[in-house]
Amino acid sequence: MKRLSWGLALCLALGLPGAAAAAPVLRVGVVDGSPPCSYQVAGVWRGLAIDLWSRVATLERLPYVVTEWPSVRQMLEASREGRLDVAVGCINVSPDRLQRYRFSLPFQEDGLAVMVIKSRLDLGRSFLGALLTPTLLQLLGGYLLAIALLTWLTLKLEARSHPAPDSRQSFLRHSSKVFQVLATGPGSNTIVATTRGNGIVILAYLVRIVSASLLVGYLTVNVAGEIQGKATGAIRSPADLRGSRVGVRSGTVSEALLKELNASSSGAKVTIVPLDSIAAGGEQLASRRIDALLADNLQLSHLLLQEETKGFLPSLALEGIRPESQAFAFSPALPEATTDRIDQAISALKRSGVVSELRQQATTPVAPQPR
């Protein structure tokens, strides 16, 4: 599929000066299904890399036509063989690619990430398991023990004002009432009548405040962290993907990483599941046809923002794996004067904050439009 750049088409239609002496039309390749870098919506190309290239071409007045390629590998090979002038996308500049292809000035750096998905029931079990930890039980036990000690002191100090009942059952009922009041707060005026008794009530209040702060801090830091760890399963490094079904796009550095894992171990292998798009990987995760999704960190962060799958909670088990620069790829036959202009434009757009702005837009949730 080919499309003349809007800048050149407008120039030709209006007959502006310089149209006749326009530079040779560049052949630009893109790959669909890689949001937020490059993808199509209603036949229109969008994405961080597409927008960046459009600005570069406008800034340098470079006319171009766009062709779609089925995979990054095929697009890079086309650029190496001279069938393309520029391959546009968030293309990782890995060491092996650096030996084979010609790249532009990098416009950003990104690593790989692993997305997994858990059902809400699984997360509920993880939450209950995280609650039943020795530390939390010790905190609760310490609080109850402190209240029990204060209950004993209250009964002893208030023996004259509130004499203990004669029967054992009445005494236990009275003691439990004092314990409940000291533990919860309301009704303290009914159990003490002396100054020392009021001091015990105040001390019980302080114990409640301190204990509540400790419990909230523990739940916020420790339990939340443990739940996140359990939600992402036993994946602590890329090697933990062995024995799992992992979805990747063909011809990417993600696929190369999985092949490297399989080649370096004689044990369980990663089952590599080719994907047509990152969105398709999210759907396969939700339907449990794959166990994990491996892609660029930016792509998976974008996927998390796009849509929530009912009954499932996606999360990033690993982030920042093997961070590498990302750039466009050039044909070896592309004149150096043209590549220099493109590199200078990329540098200017980076310095002016345009690249950072485009990246921020790609990782910011879009507010729903009012109906």
In short:
The protein has helices at residues 6-14, 48-60, 72-80, 95-100, 120-131, 134-157, 168-184, 195-231, 253-263, 278-286, 297-306, 336-351, 354-362, and strands at 26-31, 39-41, 44-46, 64-69, 86-92, 102-103, 108-119, 245-249, 271-275, 292-296, 312-330. With 371 residues, the chain is α/β, with parallel strands linked by helices.
What does this structure look like?
The protein contains 13 helices and eleven strands. It has 371 residues and is of the alpha/beta class. It has three domains: 6-110 and 324-362, D-Maltodextrin-Binding Protein, domain 2; 116-120 and 233-321, D-Maltodextrin-Binding Protein, domain 2 (3-Layer(aba) Sandwich), CATH 3.40.190; 127-231.
Secondary structure blueprint with pairings:
Layout: H1 6-14, E1 26-31, E2 39-41, E3 44-46, H2 48-60, E4 64-69, H3 72-80, E5 86-92, H4 95-100, E6 102-103, E7 108-119, H5 120-131, H6 134-157, H7 168-184, H8 195-231, E8 245-249, H9 253-263, E9 271-275, H10 278-286, E10 292-296, H11 297-306, E11 312-330, H12 336-351, H13 354-362
Parallel strand pairs: 1-4, 1-5, 8-9, 8-10
Antiparallel strand pairs: 2-3, 5-11, 6-11, 7-10, 7-11
Tags for this model:
371 residues; nine-stranded mixed β-sheet; D-Maltodextrin-Binding Protein, domain 2; alpha/beta; disordered N terminus; 3 domains; 11 strands; elongated; two-stranded antiparallel ribbon; 20% strand
